[in-house]
Design brief:
Layout lengths: L6 E2 L29 H4 L3 E4 L1 H5 L8 H4 L9 H14 L7 H20 L5 H16 L7 H17 L1 H19 L5 E4 L2 E2 L5 H9 L12 E5 L2 E5 L37 E2 L4
Parallel strand pairs: 2-7
Antiparallel strand pairs: 1-5, 2-3, 3-4, 5-6
Helix pairs in contact: 4-7, 5-6, 5-7, 6-7
Amino acid sequence: MTNFGKLALSFLALPALLLASSSAFAVDTPAACGKFDFNANGLGCEVKVEGGCEAECTPIKFIAACEGGCTLTATSQCTGNCGVSCIAQCDPAKLDCIEGCHTECEQPFIADCKASYPDRDCVTDAEASCTQHCRTNCKVVPSSCTEHCDQCCSGACTSNVNLDCDLKCYADVEGGCRVACQQPTGGLFCNGQYVNASDIKGCIDGLLAQGLQVDVSAQGTVTCDLSGCDAVGDVNAGGMFCSASPGQDSPFAPLAVAVGMAAAGISVARRRNRR
């Protein structure tokens, strides 16, 4: 291998993941990326592989993948009972729809989840489901106790009525996430959320076709050749950065990989931990 073909580059204090603003221009979601909304969920992306990837296969990371898929509406009995209690305790000076929704949502969800799905991590499931439905119902900032209670109770009750559907989605996406993590291409995560892509390379190709730029970065000592970059040593130390052009045998060939980003770009960090 020539010196040109193999490089060892070190730069201090550079992050493993570079983020790009999603506000520069609209991004159309490629078909291979599933239904992930890159405009809503950001363009800070990374490809994770091996053990570190599988650790990310958790419902908290599946909110974007499952959002909009479970559409049962809250029952009037649930929202009515919640609303009466909420109005009685509401302080107009402290309206926080998201926090109020979570408070109302999580404990009933956990109780019902444990009763029906004793093998699941119901606390994490509740956090994911409540975050998803509370965020949807609390998009408009409430201006009064009535609005606050209507919105936060609706979010909590919607989460409860969609419990079975949400848990099925989390289980399905988790299976796909773990399979992706075991593949050479790894799993794609954007802004902390798993992208339930049918074809990761096709997804990234589709983003590149829109003028987005892909960077490969890693922490630790990094060695790069025409096949890409491998992290060596303590990947949590230092802050090293490296880039190269993958060869034709790379799972991401012929993606163009370069250091730096355009004003509107996407950053994909590929991490390989050697054991």
